[in-house]
C-alpha cells in the first residue's frame, strides 16, 4: 500500500465537509484522478477545475476537507507521479495555501500546519523534482509557509535555473 493510500484511509471523509456542500466521501476518488494524470495531460491552470469546488468553496473559502487534501497531496509527492500529475498536485497545493496564510480560520491554520509537515518534501521538489513548473509551485508554497527565511533564501540561490527568473529575483 502506498503512503498516499495510507493517508487517504486514515481520514474519515464522510464526516468532513466538502467545498461542494456535501460530505467529502467522493474526494479520495478525485485525488486519485489527480495523482494518476498521465503524460498526455495538457498543462492548464494551476488547479484542476474539477477539484477546486471540492477542496474550497466557490468563494475560495477553505473547508475541513482542505487540510485533508493538503496532507494527502504531500504524501502523493513522495511517490511516483507523472510530470503533469506532479505539476498539477503542486499547483493545487499552492492554490489552497494562498488563501490559507491570509486567514486565521481554523481550516486555514490546519492547512498551513499540514503543509509545514511536508516542508522537506517541498524543498526536494524545488531542488530535485522532475517538473520545473512543479519546482516553481513548490517554491511559491514555501514562500507562503516557511518561517526560516535564511534557509529559503539559501535554497532560492542554490536552485538557480530550476526557478523562473521572477522567483530567482524575488526579495525574501
Task: Looking at this protein, list some descriptive labels.
172 residues, mainly alpha, 10 helices
Protein architecture, described:
With 172 residues, the protein is mostly helical. It has ten helices and no strands. α1 packs antiparallel against α4 and α4 packs antiparallel against α5. The model has no long low-confidence stretch (mean pLDDT 89).
What's the quick description here?
The protein is mostly helical. It contains 10 helices and no strands. 40% of the residues are buried.
The biggest sheet, with number of strands, parallel, antiparallel or mixed sense and barrel status, is: none
Estimated radius of gyration: 15 Å
Percent of residues in helices comes to 55-70%
The string of secondary-structure elements, in order, is HHHHHHHHHH
Write the layout of secondary structure elements.
Blueprint: H1 3-10, H2 27-35, H3 49-55, H4 64-77, H5 83-101, H6 106-117, H7 119-128, H8 132-145, H9 149-159, H10 165-169
Amino acid at each position: 500500500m502506498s503512503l498516499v493510500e495510507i493517508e487517504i484511509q486514515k481520514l474519515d471523509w464522510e464526516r468532513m465537509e466538502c467545498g461542494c456542500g456535501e460530505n467529502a466521501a467522493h474526494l479520495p476518488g478525485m485525488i486519485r484522478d489527480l495523482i494518476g494524470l498521465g503524460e498526455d495531460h495538457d498543462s492548464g491552470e494551476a488547479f484542476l477545475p474539477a477539484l477546486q469546488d471540492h477542496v474550497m468553496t466557490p468563494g475560495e473559502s477553505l473547508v475541513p476537507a482542505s487540510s485533508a487534501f493538503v496532507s494527502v497531496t504531500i504524501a502523493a509527492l513522495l511517490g511516483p507521479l507523472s510530470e503533469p500529475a506532479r505539476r498539477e498536485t503542486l499547483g493545487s497545493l499552492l492554490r489552497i495555501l494562498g488563501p490559507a496564510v491570509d486567514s486565521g480560520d481554523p481550516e486555514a491554520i490546519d492547512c498551513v500546519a499540514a503543509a509545514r509537515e511536508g516542508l522537506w518534501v517541498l524543498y526536494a521538489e524545488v531542488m530535485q523534482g522532475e517538473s520545473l513548473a512543479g519546482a516553481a509551485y513548490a517554491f511559491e508554497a514555501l514562500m507562503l509557509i516557511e518561517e526560516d527565511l535564511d534557509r529559503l533564501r539559501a535554497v532560492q540561490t542554490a536552485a538557480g535555473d530550476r526557478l523562473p527568473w521572477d522567483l530567482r529575483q524575488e526579495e525574501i
